[in-house]
Amino acid sequence: MISIQQLSKTYASKEGTVIGVDDVSLDINQGEVFGIVGYSGAGKSTLLRCLNILERPTSGKVTIDGIDLMSLSSKELRKARQSIGMIFQGFHLTMAKTVVENVGFALKAAGVGRIERKQRAEELLELVGLSDKANQYPAQLSGGQKQRVSIARALANNPKVLLCDEATSALDPNTTQSILQLLKKINQELGLTIVLITHEMEVVKEICDRCAVMEQGRVVEEGDTYDIFANPKNELTERFIKTVIDFTIPEALLKKSEGTIVLLKFTGDLAGEAVVSDLLQEHRIRGNILHGKIDYIQEKPLGTFVMELKGDNQEINRALASLRATLGEVEVIENDRSTDYTMARAE
Amino acid sequence: MIDQLITLWPELSKSFLDTLIMVGIGLVVSFVVGLPLGLLLFVTDRDLFLENKWVKSITGVIVNLVRSVPFIILLVFLFPFTDLLLGTTTGPVAASVSLSVAAIPFYARIVESSARDIDRGVIEAAISCGASPWLIIKDIIFPEIKSGLISGLTITAISLVGYSAMAGTIGGGGIGDLAIRYGYYRYDNFVMFTTVILLIVMVQVIQYVGDFTAKSVKKS
């Protein structure tokens, strides 16, 4: 659906050339929710803005639904933008227009007549759950409601793609949830392809099918959201995941513990508790669970357990070996007692 | 005092009317020409949807040129032009030619600066909707700056009252001219005070009406 090829964006500044996006290639499939994560300044916003040519890429190619956007004349580009909706962190509604007029503006841009405009705008407001606010002004609405209006505006011309520029970053957690649910709903009901950028891994975990992690203008990791969470390859990705799945054990507890500390991850259908109880029955060791959590990503469980294993060293090693056998590719991280609490990789 | 006022009345009302004509024409022309000029200055600015370095700089230079000439000099300087246009250089209509020329760039800059206050994101959102430049100007920028446009007209009108006094002294007529002729040349303090009070009242009324209108068009 969206194909980004070797896209770069540079800016000329007094200090020389600043690189915003550095040779990024991505393919985003029809109907998926694709997340781009990164800290501020990573270039994710610039990348997103290149997708509807709000910023013209310095080099590379952007193709949406088979149309090479960079080759279009300004009139053709306006037409193409009508099928690419966009929402923003700051909502960007016209304060001097009512809710229904704000939505109607997008239709006006597409040349829709007055009567049809009103009818369609009302339909859209119903879709986002704001029918009763049609004649109010944005200043009278809450942040979440404003974002709903801007979603309605973005959907006005039946776009195939929706770009979300930090759409939930200005909202409180509850409102974020409800906006994400709305995005999910329109993704499923309208079959819309959604590209969102965010610095909140929670958002990715909540709704993204696939995601990419960006740093210094480059994509450092990309893949299925579940795989990324279960098996991050990049150090930055790991840091992002820790913001959602945190398994830091308090220092004091670590000092007190005498055994080997292991981090177990259970992916897919492996039931964590069963593996642990089998382990304790089969080996002459004692186990102490320090931390346990099961997260659901794309409705699949991802379990994280931190355990302290006590007993004979050899027996522990044997237990670890059998754990690795059961959990397969899942990494088992052990606490090396001699080097304090650094989670060295076991494999 | 009443007697003095009655004797002065015909001339006072004529002067008042002349001032109204000068300010009125100046205001209408500055709005009609200054508004598009101000919008042009804005939309051709850097990073805006009709960014155009040449148009922006040339328009900017012309606007600054006119604004940097002191009004009294501009008045005299424009006499040949006024003569060409109207066949005369005296009377309120002739004076309003130079008043208009001075007020156009003044108002254009006000329009430009109130447009600059618009959140760029709002314009960007309109671009992302696929709106044409004209639609963005008409449907996004204009409603957002409507109240600023009226405040700007108020400021322009008050400046025009001041300028009209200068224009009046070199053949334009009006209240300012009256004040100079009687008050300055003849030391007639009564006329002087009457005209000053009239000017104060006029400015107050303009300010009040302007503020009220600006407030009433401001929605949300």
Chart the SSEs and their pairings.
The complex is a heterodimer of chains A (347) and B (220).
Chain A lengths: L1 E12 L2 E13 L4 E5 L6 H7 L8 E6 L2 E2 L5 H8 L2 E5 L10 H11 L4 H14 L15 H13 L5 E5 L7 H18 L2 E6 L2 H7 L2 E6 L2 E7 H6 L4 H8 L8 H6 L3 E8 L4 H11 L2 E13 L2 E12 L1 H15 L5 E3 L7 E3 L2
Parallel strand pairs in A: 3-8, 3-9, 6-7, 7-8
Antiparallel strand pairs in A: 1-2, 1-4, 4-5, 9-10, 11-13, 11-14, 12-13, 14-15
Helix pairs in contact in A: 3-4, 3-5, 4-5, 5-6, 11-12
Chain B lengths: L1 H42 L9 H16 L2 H7 L1 H8 L5 H25 L3 H9 L4 H40 L2 H11 L3 H29 L3
Helix pairs in contact in B: 1-2, 1-5, 1-7, 1-8, 2-5, 4-5, 5-7, 6-7, 7-8, 7-9, 8-9
In short:
Chain A is an alpha/beta fold and 347 residues long. Chain A has helices at 44-50, 74-81, 99-109, 114-127, 143-155, 173-190, 201-207, 225-230, 235-242, 251-256, 272-282, 313-327; strands at residues 2-13, 16-28, 33-37, 59-64, 67-68, 84-88, 161-165, 193-198, 210-215, 218-224, 260-267, 285-297, 300-311, 333-335, 343-345. In chain A, a hairpin with a 2-residue loop joins strand 1 and strand 2 (16-28).
Descriptive report:
Chain A: This is Methionine ABC transporter ATP-binding protein. Chain A: Belongs to the ABC transporter superfamily. Chain A: Keywords: Amino-acid transport, ATP-binding, Cell membrane, Membrane, Nucleotide-binding, Translocase, Transport. The complex is a heterodimer of chains A (347) and B (220). Chain A is α/β, with parallel strands linked by helices and 347 residues long. Chain A is built from 12 helices and 15 strands. In chain A, the strands form 3 sheets. Chain A has a 6-stranded mixed sheet, with helices on both faces. The radius of gyration of chain A is 24 Å and the shape is elongated. Chain A starts with a strand and ends with a strand. With 220 residues, chain B is mostly helical. Chain B is 85% helix and 0% strand. The relative contact order of chain B is 0.15. The longest helix of chain B has 42 residues, at 2-43. Chain B has helices at 2-43, 53-68, 71-77, 79-86, 92-116, 120-128, 133-172, 175-185, 189-217. Chain B has one domain (2-217): Orthogonal Bundle (MetI-like fold), CATH 1.10.3720.10. In chain B, helix 1 (2-43) packs across helix 5 (92-116), helix 1 packs antiparallel against helix 7 and helix 7 runs parallel beside helix 8 (175-185).
